[in-house]
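Just wondering, does anyone understand what follows?

——
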Amino acid sequence: MKKRSVLDLKRITRQEFKQIEKIPLVIVLDHIRSLNNVGSVFRTSDAFLIEAIFLCGITATPPHPEIHKTALGAEDSVEWHYEEDTCKAVTDLKNSGYTVFAIEQVENSVSLPDLKLDKSKKYAVVLGNEVKGVQQSVVDLCDQSIEIPQFGTKHSLNVSVTAGLIIWDFFKQLYY
């Protein structure tokens, strides 16, 4: 089996990416400290045709060399917005017809394997700070929370890993 080259993969251009239809999903980053995590979320969002990313609070914004290190240019293809107040971003999304999920371990959360999405709806997911998670005030505004089941000794995942799992699950349900 021969490994495919970049040319074999026939990737679309940045301009084509901006024109192509996206899945109805917005990612909200709530006070993410690590610029590598931010860059990774951009790269995953590009790979799976995410509509936009909202960078909130202390979350850094492009252009920045540390974001670029992991985004590898996806910060230029994926639409993004900065909003200082995550609660305002969530409220604005809800007022625009989005169903908003916090990705957080809370009472009555829905387990990711049990999540059923409706292709006719628009969604947003909020990913929280590496130490404190999604702010309680933001969780309170969300329509529901999604929890990723974990079975080892640790009960949290890196933000970029969480984003990858969530984005992939939403993509599978909304794209195919």
About this structure: The chain has a mean pLDDT of 97.
